[in-house]
Amino acid sequence: MCKNRVWKHVVKEGDSLVDATCGNGNDTLAMVKMVAEKSCRGRVYAMDVQKIALENTFSLLDEELSTDEKELVELFAICHCKMEEVVPTGVPVRLVAFNLGYLPGGDKTLVTTSETTLLALEAAKRILAPQGLISIVVYVGHPGGREEFETVRAFASELPVDNWICCNLQLLNRPLAPVLVFLFKR
Amino acid sequence: MCKNRVWKHVVKEGDSLVDATCGNGNDTLAMVKMVAEKSCRGRVYAMDVQKIALENTFSLLDEELSTDEKELVELFAICHCKMEEVVPTGVPVRLVAFNLGYLPGGDKTLVTTSETTLLALEAAKRILAPQGLISIVVYVGHPGGREEFETVRAFASELPVDNWICCNLQLLNRPLAPVLVFLFKR
Description:
alpha/beta, SAM-dependent_MTases_sf (chains A, B), 7 strands, seven-stranded mixed beta sheet, MnmM_MeTrfase (chains A, B), globular
């Protein structure tokens, strides 16, 4: 909930957004609702490596979106590290959202990895528009989760302070709860 | 700025608040503005151990507040660990705010310490109303700052998850920037 509030400070109707890990589609749905407007300029590019994730997302969008809204979203069966292959060149992306870890309700052994996550963060950095946001939810409770968080933290800590505001939000009395990381581009 | 937005989600007109470390008075001023209303029920109890801090706060309030608003605030020359001596018993306190470290623009060798900060946090926990907030800004760039943050973090991490939401907000690419810690009581 906190995450979506932050998104609303950044995203405007008509913006182009990337859901780098669409999972069960909840974020994709929220994104389409944020960018949808009369002129149908907004776009959401959503991707996942898992077929079941794309199916769940498709079902959710099919149920919750109007015909016009459905026109605004495209689903891709690719790794988030390849987002530049599906986002048209030159499109200013206002938000790239990541949900790292495993698919909620899915196979917990299928997880994002530090290696592709780092490549995906670098891609997100290249396509993000000024005043854009990279939003990352990092699950730290599964094997490899803590290591992946360290990869994200290292990436964020090296972004220049003149161009980026990088912060993380952690629950101090729930050490295994997901960590939110926000990278705001000036 | 982020901190004040969070406060506004918690504080209502007519509430009683504690500024545990009034410093130059900016937070005290913001607090009075948040609680002030026609019936003059709101109260802000502000304290500091440094005489210069209380003088700066008094000057700022004198300049920025109306006569009615000035009636809502009381300044005390005591340590934050003794807040229970100045807040009337039974008053439900909606917000206790801490700015740990040294007085901005003041003597950097005069700092809050882990020992009294821990006592003050325990006092704040006792007087806080349900749906209240303990807000802590921890400066980590001065000697002892990191240790004080660890004290705050340890305190927060032990609060029961059923009754408290404890989170911290850190700038990842500015490791010496102050850390925000919010302890929300359910």
